[in-house]
Every structure is written in structure tokens, then in C-alpha cells.
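Worked example 3 (structure in, sequence out).
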């Protein structure tokens, strides 16, 4: 699946360290006004029922929105998730590629409100919205 992503213009995300190494690698494709992130689903992402574990999808969503916020305000600014509300709409399956986009809805001095969407080529998988705290240097 990785070869297919590369053929479609995706490149490996530059920030794949820490926890991301366990479920990634993540890929991204820059388009006119947005960036789409991708995760190829393999056996390690599945739960005992044979579909993608909800925690994998939720972790990918957090990453998608986090990176989308950084795309808009700059990746040098530090911020952390303080709330993430999600809606599981459908299950992803082995061999699917999760495609995620995110955007800022509102930004104040201290917090950012943002939302995201994860789909496959066949269906919508998850929607989410949340709040990220801007970490101001002391």
C-alpha cells in the first residue's frame, strides 16, 4: 500500500517520531489549499473482530488535526490536545488507507478549536472536533 501512496504523490511525514512510530508511518500530500494525511492499514492495526481498532483511528485523528493546526499557525508553536470529541461512523478494514484532513475553526490567544475528517476511498470513517491549548513560553 505504501507504494500506491507514493504513486499518488504522498510523501512520508517529517514528524513520525515517538508514539507515531508505533502505528505509522504517516504520509502526507500537499494540495492547493490543504494537506491530506494518510495511514495504510495492516494487521497490527486490527482488533479481535478484524477491523481497525478504534484507538488507532482516534490516534490518527489527533495527529491529523494536530498537524493541520501546525500547517496553519506554524509548527514552531507548541500546543497540546485538551479535548477531542469523536464520532465513529464506519469501521476501516485491512488494506484500507485512512485519509485525514483537519482545519482550525477558531483561534484565541490561549486555545485553538479545530475539526477533522477521516475517510477511505469507500466511506467516511470518523469526524472529530476538539480544543488544543497553546503552550506559551515562560
Amino acid at each position: 500500500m505504501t507504494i500506491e501512496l507514493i504513486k499518488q504523490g504522498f510523501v512520508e511525514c517529517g514528524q513520525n517520531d515517538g508514539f507515531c512510530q508505533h502505528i505509522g508511518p504517516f504520509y502526507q500530500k500537499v494540495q492547493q489549499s490543504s494537506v491530506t494525511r494518510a495511514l495504510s492499514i495492516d494487521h497490527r492495526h486490527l482488533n479481535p473482530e478484524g477491523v481497525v481498532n478504534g484507538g488507532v483511528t482516534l490516534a490518527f485523528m489527533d495527529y491529523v488535526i494536530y498537524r493541520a493546526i501546525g500547517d496553519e499557525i506554524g509548527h514552531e508553536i507548541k500546543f497540546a490536545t485538551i479535548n477531542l470529541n469523536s464520532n465513529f461512523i464506519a469501521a476501516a478494514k485491512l488494506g484500507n488507507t485512512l485519509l485525514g484532513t483537519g482545519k482550525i475553526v477558531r483561534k484565541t490567544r490561549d486555545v485553538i478549536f479545530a475539526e477533522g475528517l477521516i475517510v477511505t476511498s469507500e466511506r467516511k470513517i470518523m469526524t472529530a472536533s476538539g480544543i488544543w491549548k497553546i503552550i506559551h513560553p515562560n
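Notes: The beta strands are 11-12, 27-30, 35-40, 79-88, 97-107, 111-119, 124-134. The first helix runs from residue 2 to 7.
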